[in-house]
Specification:
The complex is a heterodimer of chains A (185) and B (131).
Chain A lengths: L1 H14 L2 E9 L1 H17 L4 H21 L17 E10 L2 E11 H16 L2 H14 L10 H9 L5 E6 L4 E9 L1
Antiparallel strand pairs in A: 1-2, 2-3, 3-5, 4-5
Chain B lengths: L3 E3 L7 E5 L4 E8 L4 H19 L3 E11 L1 H19 L3 E8 L4 H12 L5 E6 L6
The chains are: A alpha+beta (185), B alpha/beta (131).
């Protein structure tokens, strides 16, 4: 039973072509460790330089988005400790045909869904030239309201992807929706 | 003035600021855990150096294999500082080296280069043995 349960989960993942799967609290240390393993695996696959760097770049932005923005946090009750925020996310890397696919998901506030959807739709509809122009403009403009970064991570993902990015939302409860973003390289 | 030399780590680039030779270099990969913490001392050292440069000349080489989106912001700030020194009369040459197998880094270099109004920008391929 014990082996069967976990093996079944593994089988579901493997059937979908998934090479790496992480579900849990994401930290910068997880990013470092999994990132190194991804580099090694792609090097063993004989992936070309551009593919390797692009998969890695998408992975880094997806991870950092979850680390910073996931709405599912560990409650931090130890008031005497420095504020440690741990946030929950799911990330998989797999193959679909000739593509590498980096797929990430986390909870977001339902009140943020429209804003995110608009921004992602805009990015998704842009060609590489438009993305380049927008990236340049936003790099100079500085962080948008409600963002801890310059909003550049999503653009970087779209620029590195070989196909339009895909995203989706599904409501989880009154306050939260599950957000997922998939990029193929 | 004290040179600034920071060896590369997995997530941070090597900094090699040789102020005596007016030759500054940033190379490797940049996706620090904390961008501000890593780049603040670099900004301070560059500010102090540029303040003394006057009409002198300096060269800054960017030899980056990879940088994440938050590091791009830091690189833009370095470029702005160099361009401001050039506006005040310094002869500043900025070289952006890119791996020819990664056109994203070439495009990013072009983006930065377009914004330099006074510093001279050079876009160059990395030598094959780098990276």
């Amino acid at each position: 039973m014990l082996a069967r349960e976990l093996f079944d989960i593994r089988s579901i993942l493997r059937k979908q072509g998934i090479i790496f799967a992480y579900s849990g609290y994401v930290t910068e240390a997880v990013l470092s460790g999994v990132g190194e393993a991804i580099k090694q695996k792609l090097a063993l696959d004989d992936a070309d330089t551009k593919t390797l760097r692009s998969v890695f770049a998408v992975f880094v932005e997806q991870m950092q988005n979850m680390i910073r923005y996931s709405a599912e946090k560990v409650p931090n009750s130890a008031a005497e400790l420095p504020l440690i925020e741990m946030r929950y996310g799911v990330l998989t890397i797999g193959r679909e045909g000739d593509d590498y696919v980096v797929h990430a998901g986390n909870l977001v506030a339902r009140s943020d869904v429209e804003r995110l959807r608009e921004r992602l739709s805009e990015i998704r509809s842009m060609n590489k030239e438009e993305l380049r122009a927008m990236h340049k403009e936003r790099l100079r403009a500085g962080p948008e309201k409600g963002s801890k970064g310059a909003g550049l991570g999503l653009m970087e993902i779209a620029r590195r992807a070989s196909k339009p990015i895909e995203f989706d939302f599904t409501d989880v409860d009154d306050e939260h929706a599950f957000f997922t973003l998939k990029a193929s390289v | 003035m004290q040179n600034l030399v920071i060896p590369a780590s997995t997530r941070t680039p090597a900094i090699d600021f040789d102020f005596g030779k007016n030759y500054l270099k940033l190379s490797g990969e940049s996706y620090p855990e904390d961008v501000t913490e890593f780049y603040n001392p670099v900004f301070s050292a560059l500010d102090a150096y540029l303040a003394t440069l006057g009409p002198g000349s300096c060269r800054f080489d960017f030899e980056l294999i990879y940088l994440n989106s938050s590091s791009a912001k830091a690189v833009m700030m370095l470029m702005d500082k160099l361009d401001a020194a050039a506006a005040k009369g310094a002869a500043v040459d900025v070289h952006w080296f890119y791996d020819e197998e990664d056109d994203t880094m070439q495009e990013l270099g072009e983006e930065f280069g377009e914004d330099l109004e006074n510093a001279k920008f050079h876009l160059e391929k990395m030598k094959a043995d780098v990276g």
